[in-house]
Amino acid sequence: MQSQARFVFKQGFIYGVGNIITKLSGVILLPLYHTFINENEFGVFTLFETFFQFILILSSWGVKGGFMRWYFEMKSQEEKQELFFTTWIFNFATSLLAVAVIGIVLVFFSFEIFKYEISYSTILYFLAGSFFRLLYDIPFHQMKLEQKAVQQTKWLTINMFLLLGFTYFFLGYKGMGLKGIFIAQFLSHLITFMALIPFSLKQMSFKFKRNYLSEMIHYGFPLAVSNILTTVLTLSNLHILNQYQNLGEVAGYSMAYRISNLVQMVVIASIITSYSNYFFKTLNEKDCMSFYSRFTRIFLLLVSLGGLVVILFSPEIMRVISAGSEFYDESVILIPVLIAGLIFSGWRQLLMLPLNKHKKTGIISLIMISSAVLNILISFALIPSFGKMGASISAVIAQFIAMLWFIVEVKKLEKVNLHIFKFAGLMVIWTILVITATQFLNLPNPMGWLINIICILAFIGFMFLFKILHQNELFTIFNFIKTGRFMPRRNQG
């Protein structure tokens, strides 16, 4: 278990660096946005991002998931290269189709969607940037499968600096507003795509395999359908806010969501990215689910701890990324609610792996679609009266229901200890500390920071006191945070 965990968390740490770099670009860009565009324009920008998420899911029809699932079943390097070529070509065609469909919708219905006048050239640059962003997605998947976390992080860093430089130029020097943001995205993604062409060519054997494609579509299409519907229904919170409230409410919710999403980007996504690759590589080994059980508990501890840290320092983070705008101060209260939803979402993502192991993509689709429908129904009930807080509450309820359903389905397939009662105890302690700590968020520093540190230490202490966290695990978590290596301390004998 020591060598397995060390490898997974070391890779997760490197992916975490990449995710931090990606998120750092967003953190740096947000003050630029708020310096050169107003709250309504930022709300429009946020709604454009929902369309990119939809394009991302619509492209490839689930073949990316099939590519990751089938890669290690290829017996030779040539077969892997044929699989890569087949996936890349199909992704190119479907991405072009997805961009065209969304482009038609935006051209003809932009004012009805945004309640704001958008130029056709702005839409064109958004679509072009989205297209080239999708084209280097498959090479990034290849790097993940080959555990080339350092290489992927390097390319993420290059893309970040390109995006920062172009954005500053078109906003600060040219004063081009929303259009400048999307020109910057277009140029940075185009250059990144072109720079990755040599890497992509090395991975290709120019032979299109229809049988591979058919199997990957059969496996991934149910997930693609559910992801499309889930994306539409989940991100509809922002559009419902815009229709029932205004772009200011959209901007406030988006800012709180971006801060909360630090937990997803830095902790959840990085660790699950690393572990998912490892899980699929070892899913036929005897101790696969035994390690999965142990990994689950440590994962939940790290996610909860990361969420607590973000909540405690959320006022400071909000002031930095909003360039000191007081408009967003009232959105800080949304962050604990959204992070609770992300904790449930993080475990749900981990629970999907055993279902993928048994190729139960239909069940995954059913759960995701059902929870998304539930989310939108609750949103319609709460948003008209409670605005962005209603959107936050609806997301938490939907994620919680989906998590419970996944637990039931996993228990049907695997005799695995999911530490349900320990997780329940962890969440009770976490909630009590969050409620207590939020009463002191407005204290002046350094007193406020001192209380934050006390709350973090208290959380770790309660985990140890109630045996949710063991002594050797306490050491390994701190060692991981410090060095990026997950190495349990040997018992002294």
> How many β-strand runs?
0
Query: What fraction, in percent, of the residue positions are helical?
Result: over 70%
Number of helices: 18
Any idea what the radius of gyration is?
Answer: 22 Å
Number of domain modules: 2
Overall shape: it is: globular
What is the SS-derived class? Answer: mainly alpha
Topology order in helix (H) and strand (E) letters: HHHHHHHHHHHHHHHHHH
C-alpha termini separation = 20 Å
On the 0-100 scale, what is the average pLDDT? 79
Largest sheet: none
Q: Low-confidence runs (pLDDT<50, min 5 residues)?
A: 11-16, 483-493
Question: Into which percentage range does the β-strand content fall?
Answer: under 5%
Q: How would you explain this protein's 3D organization?
A:
- By secondary structure, the protein is mostly helical.
- It folds into 2 domains: 1-16 and 245-493, no CATH class; 37-224, no CATH class.
- The protein contains 18 helices and no strands.
- The longest helix is centred in the last third of the chain and has 53 residues, at 361-413.
